[in-house]
Amino acid sequence: MTTLDSRPTAAKPVARSIDVRGPRFGAVITTVVLAVTLLTIPTTTSILLLSWQTLVFALGSIVGLQAQPYGVLYRKVVQPRLAAPTEFEDPQPPRFAQSVGLAFGVVGLIALIVGATPVAYVAIGFALAAAFLNAAFNVCLGCEMYLIGRRLFSSRATA
Fold first, then answer.
1. pLDDT tens for each residue of 50-97
2. What is the count of structural domains for the chain?
3. pTM surpassing 0.90?
4. Does residue 156 fall inside a structural domain?
């Protein structure tokens, strides 16, 4: 589970905790999808790929991580082939990260549709950078944003 300092803890899973490897697996796929999207701008392929990725972000953000397609793939296909998880985290920070990805995806998609290619490059590039950091270095920027916001708002509530 994630503590307020965002470090996953090695322990038995708490009722709503998730295997920390799942979001990282999703970040690997997201990195590939967004990289190909950037390489194919301004074609129909880029719009289709970004539409798919935005839908993935929306499902993870709005419905929950259990509905996120890459998470489903991880739980059904990959996780059974791995050793039992030893680290767990609260699903709220990764779910918030999906919301951040959704915002960048929507901006990028609108930009592609209206022909604002530079805006699309920037929005998709930011989402790609965040996904790559998570995939390669296990650094979830959206999760860190969530935890910083939580610290700020909890300290204001107690002041």
1. 999 999 999 999 999 999 999 999 999 999 999 999 999 999 999 999
2. 1
3. no
4. no
